[in-house]
Amino acid sequence: MIKSKHFEFVRTAAVVLIALLLTFIMISFVSSKPLETIFIFLYEPLSSMSHAGNIVEMAIPLMFTGLALSLLFKMNMFNLGAEGIFYFSGLTAAAVAIHFSLGGFLHPVAAIVLGGIVGALISAVTGFLKAKWNANELVTSLMFNSILYGVGQYLLNYKLRDAAAFQTASFKFDPTALLSRIVPGTRIHTGLIIALGCIVAGHYFMYKTRWGYELRMTGANREFAEYSGIKTAKVIIFVHLLAGLAAGIGGSVEVLGMYNRFQWNALPGYGLDGALVAMLAKNNPLGVIGSALFLAYIRVGADMMSRYSDVPAEMISIVQAVILLLVSADQFLKFWKNRMLLKEAQKHA
């Protein structure tokens, strides 16, 4: 018998299954060979080491932004600033990779640390505005995304751009700054280890420390937290610092792990995807790992499907929309949870 404490896991699994079922129904209407197309969608991402590697490669940046947003969402802060921070911190790491040359592992470490610090400081501004003047964090974070993108494009075009390249891209990175591959036959890099380490640290912080307890209390009820003696303004700023640090490290790791020069001419989208990852994980840092891998899996499957069948990859956008709608619907399956709680209460009465 399923207990109420497992409700959120079952609810999320139901959301995923419903979204996939709707996907299969749509494929059956669009494709001339629906069964073959569904097989490609589900099997091809795992059919070879390189394809499976693509899933992990795509999941790494999603883990970082998912972790950043899970911290903010747990605080009941709907902040989407990880998008701009991810981009700008990646550019910061690129500048270090271009203009400095350090021996051994110091070069990527310096670039990643600096990118993380820049991300933390930028995010702290949004946190300060929220804590001091109760500025709407969604509005300020979205504005910062536009500002960071504009400043980043200026720096890329006028300070870092390689005129000899046949595209808008920076000079090549010093080879010592690049992250090394850890799985032969794939592009999986040491950023995976960094991502998993950050997630474990984030989980420990959220559930095993006093600061994490204050974070959860403030997110549940800020007024009650203040009445209990928690300095919520400091908690808000501190959590924004941590979230910015995670997103900043993520942007730096992605640039140094997957590219040899900075070439993002648009916001990469990982910050907004991180919101979906965090919601699927129910704002639990450890759950971010599975959520990121699942989202990467269906995206790689959609890409394979568009190559080997007559169904376009854009179909996956519908899946993501359905997942987002159902996950964000508080009343979805709530009647079942109420029934379980009632039965458990009667059992212990």
Key structural traits:
mainly alpha; 349 residues
Description:
- Helix content is 72%, strand content 0%.
- It is mostly helical.
- The protein is built from 14 helices and no strands.
- Helix 3 (49-74) crosses helix 11 (270-280).
- The protein has helices spanning 7-30, 34-43, 49-74, 82-99, 106-133, 137-160, 191-208, 210-220, 222-227, 232-258, 270-280, 287-308, 315-328, 334-347.
- It has a single domain (49-313), classed as ABC transporter involved in vitamin B12 uptake, BtuC (Orthogonal Bundle), CATH 1.10.3470.10.
- The protein is globular, with a radius of gyration of 21 Å.
- The protein starts with 6 loop residues before the first helix and ends with a helix.
Tell me the Rg in angstroms.
Answer: 21 Å
Which percent range describes the beta-strand content?
A: under 5%
Please state the overall shape, judged from the principal axes of the Cα atoms: globular
Note the gap between the termini: 18 Å
**Number of domain units:** 1
Largest sheet: none
Spell the H/E element sequence.
HHHHHHHHHHHHHH
CATH domain fold name: ABC transporter involved in vitamin B12 uptake, BtuC
The class by helix and strand makeup works out as: mainly alpha
Protein name: ABC transporter permease
Main location: membrane
GO molecular function: transmembrane transporter activity
Membrane topology: Multi-pass membrane protein
Give a summary of the structure in a few sentences:
GO terms for molecular function: transmembrane transporter activity. The chain crosses the membrane at residues 12-31, 51-73, 85-102, 108-129, 138-156, 188-207, 235-259, 315-333. With 349 residues, this protein is an all-alpha fold.
